[in-house]
Amino acid sequence: MVQSNGWPPRVVMRKASGLRTLEAALIRSGLGPVAGVDEAGRGPCAGPLVVAACLLAPKAYDKLAGLDDSKKLTEPVREELYPIITRLSLAWNVVVIPAWEIDSIGIHVANIEGMRRAVAGLGRTPGYVLTDGFRVPGIPAPSLPVIGGDAAAACIAAASILAKVTRDRMMVELDARFPGYGFASHKGYNTPDHIAALHHLGPSDEHRRSWRNVREAAGLRPVATVAEEADAVLAGEVDPMMSEEFPVVRPDSRVATGATHAR
After folding, report:
1. pLDDT, tens digit, for every residue of 78-91?
2. CB of 56 within 8 A of CB of 155?
């Protein structure tokens, strides 16, 4: 039953199997097909942010009954579900935002922009979009942020698996390019082993310079300090050409490159 005195229309929720309750209600209200959007890699200090959008068919396939938050699933289960999702979904798209772009625009803006790009690249316009936790302006369809969405909506859970599997595979590849950091095991997260390698080797090209621990390992000043000093320059309070307080990079800073990161 739908009350149509507004857009989007209000929907009546009825219990459906698995994680399909919210999607089933939207589809019954004429708002399907429903796309889910989620990301992997917000927290790590190294590697890309990966965002996925997935448009599931209205039919609840038995092979997708195991859909859940990707963080709750084991790696073998995620790998098993990945080709099933890509085969049975109406459309899907994965967007990769590299570390340098995250540093340029910030992780939150990167996440929102990644979600926009993921939906735009689906190849067909969804009737409704469910996003995991964040309101995303600029999506060409009605949308709703769902807190804990990857454990509440099948389409978001499917997107979370696509994003997580894609990013994990990329981090394994980066481990071969940048040996010594252990990317294949910790996937860029701030584990003790990763932090120790970061301080021993210095940051690689894939480390996010806007993260405090990476800046410290590189001998760079905190981002907040740099911003305050830039404001002072713009305000005319300090002449950067005459002051030693505004070095761009300290002479003893260490930044590892793709060819020379391992010593």
Report:
1. 999 999 999 999 99
2. yes
